[in-house]
Amino acid sequence: KHKPIWDPSTDCGDYVVATGCNDMLVTGRKKEQKLYYKQTTRPGALKSLNMESMIRKWGGGEVLKRAVRGMLPKNRLRDKRLERLKVFEGEAHPYKLNLVKFEGRTRRVEPEVKTEVLKRNSI
Fold it and tell me: Residue 22 and residue 24: Cα distance in Å, rounded?
């Protein structure tokens, strides 16, 4: 909403890179109790996975993507916006050369800051 060309019905957003998804912290017993469902359109074919098995099978990035997907508005732009979320299990990613400029100054976010934010704000 900070861009002068912003409109709620158009897609004019930026990319978001999330690193260190394998070190995701959750509170309580969510790893054992939170369930993710999948339907194959066949009768009686509702499958469920808990968070722990989903992290083992697909990684912590898939858990983060599903959490963000639930927070986005349920409209025709949701899938396009979700494509701009790039998740990586480790700290290495191919977007290190992309710099963000605010008010004419270049700003970089150091990895230590990101890990502190992840530890304080658990899912």
Answer: 6
